[in-house]
Amino acid sequence: MTKREQEILIILKENPLISQQELANLLEIKRSSVGVHLSNLIKKGYLKGKGYIINEAPYLVVLGGANIDIVGFTDAPLILKDSNQGTLKISMGGVGRNIAENLVRLGLNTKLISVIGDDANGIQLKSHSQQIGLDVLDSLFLKNQATSVHLAIMDEHNDMALGLSAMNIYNQFSLSFIKKKHEILQKATCIVLDTNMPKIILDEVATNYHSQKLFLDAVAGSKALRAKDILQFLYVLKVNRLEAEILSGLKIKK
Predict the structure, then answer these.
(1) In this predicted model, what pLDDT tens digit does every residue of 176-192 receive, in sequence order?
(2) Do 92 and 101 touch, CB atoms closer than 8 A?
(3) Total domain count, the chain
(4) Which of 55, 66, 109, 189 lies at 20 to 30 Å from 89 by C-alpha?
């Protein structure tokens, strides 16, 4: 599936009654080009003929963090408790979202289930997802909530001197919400988890959907223990040295 075809499918999921001209206006392309893309989607089996009824192709689900990353780079050695000259880089982030984007760029049909606010950062995340063909329609969108942000300050060696996470929005990810996604999770070819999600959500998914292959990224030492009770359900566990020590209770010797 091409990037443009992915964009069209995401729009059709939100508005299956949209006209070809409206699609053309949204995508800033000719109506005739929309017709060609729709014809190709029908031939490939993604649409069931007229009416834009979507025939769901095999897909993966990523259940994890989606946030804005802000990274600060200093022009000189850091001076604590003072203002430092440097540059800032702002990008789309979140372990789960990053994994989902890479899967899409590999040509895999991917759904991201995360928690996103209705602020400017949330709007930017949703827009970027649509541009790259990442399906976020099953995410939890919250009104009057701030989207997750991670701030990192790098030292003169480009090592992180300080990190700050504003991720309280993930605490609003509830069991009742994830249970509404039963059909989506049940039909997934595999499920990728990250420990930005509350432990109760990780336990629920691992316990009920381990017949699918479950992949988990432990994210950080401070969050790794959220996965301790579901290790037996995992097909793949991705950890660094610190996370491995925390989950195993063993000190890794050099």
Answers:
(1) 999 999 989 999 999 99
(2) yes
(3) 2
(4) 109
